[in-house]
Write a structure and sequence with these properties.
The protein has 265 residues and is of the alpha/beta class. It is built from eleven helices and eight strands. An eight-stranded parallel barrel has the order 1-2-3-4-5-6-7-8, surrounded by seven helices.
């Protein structure tokens, strides 16, 4: 089965209204130019940007009639209530978000989100039904060195399976982001990443082969123009979740171009 590649930018806590507008229009222009040169009318892959939540309205406006979707970086599991500073899934969806990142390692590490809390958010997203959850999973360097990569990733996924079952992954995306590769400039080798992606898909295939086959599993962690084609060319890597390199038109568009070339090959 051919899965459509998804190139996603996680802007984290960066940007401004002006940057949001300029970045989105610049990415759209560059991506469409490449597509036109390759004589494709439409992009052969999907583009997603996840700006800070306050810039979502500006992003949705800038992405209007462009082949770019907008996502949020986090959400609360409850639909409303006394949760000062939090944002509900319904609110993000109302603003025009199509995707939401859940359980990013920075949420897990800096804001102490547990596997169970992340799973509750995922379950709420499934129940709400208006956005695609992007479940972020990954091990720390110490966990990898102790040979625990698969155990950790499996536990993060099992917490979600316990709440929503395999059906919850029929309209979802997983992003494998080894913590040691995030923002460090150190990338997992294509072989290291492929091995974990294949593990995730095989684990889910034990429950439902069709869901596992259709599921897009993105790689994140220092993806950039120089390594994108090798990573995206792996059989179980279906896109990228990009941090630093998503903040400049040139670097993000170069990754998009790599996806376009691969999708047409
Ligand atoms: P970098 O691409 O900056 O390593 O960040 C990856 C990431 O955390 C995306 O969610």
């Amino acid at each position: 089965m051919t899965r459509r590649l998804l190139i996603a930018g996680n802007w984290k806590m960066h940007g401004s209204v002006e940057m949001t507008t300029d970045l989105i229009s610049g990415i759209a222009r560059a991506a469409l130019e490449t597509a036109t040169l390759s004589e494709q009318r439409e992009l052969a892959y999907d583009i997603l940007v996840c700006p800070p939540s306050v810039y979502i309205p500006a992003a949705v406006k800038a992405a209007d009639s462009q082949p770019i979707r907008v996502g949020a970086q986090n959400a609360h599991a409850k639909s409303q209530g006394a949760y000062t500073g939090e944002v509900a899934l319904e609110m993000l969806s109302e603003l025009g978000c199509d995707y939401v990142l859940l359980g990013h390692s920075e949420r897990r590490e800096i804001f102490s989100e547990t596997d169970d809390e992340v799973a509750s958010k995922f379950a709420a997203c499934c129940e709400n039904g208006s956005m695609v959850p992007v479940l972020c999973v990954g091990e720390t360097l110490a966990q990898r060195q102790q040979g625990q990569t698969e155990t950790i990733v499996a536990a993060q996924i099992d917490a979600v399976l316990d709440k929503v079952g395999i059906a919850g992954f029929s309209k979802a995306v997983i992003a494998y982001e080894p913590v040691w590769a995030i923002g460090t400039g150190e990338t997992a080798t294509p072989e290291q990443a492929q091995a974990v992606h294949a593990f995730i898909r095989a684990k889910l295939a034990e429950l439902d082969a069709d869901v596992a086959n259709a599921l897009r599993i993105l790689y994140g962690g220092s993806m950039k123009a120089e390594n994108a084609a090798d990573l995206l060319g792996q059989p179980d890597i279906d896109g990228g979740l990009i941090g630093g390199a998503s903040l400049k038109v040139e670097s993000f568009a170069a990754i998009c171009d790599a996806a376009h070339v691969l999708a047409l090959s």
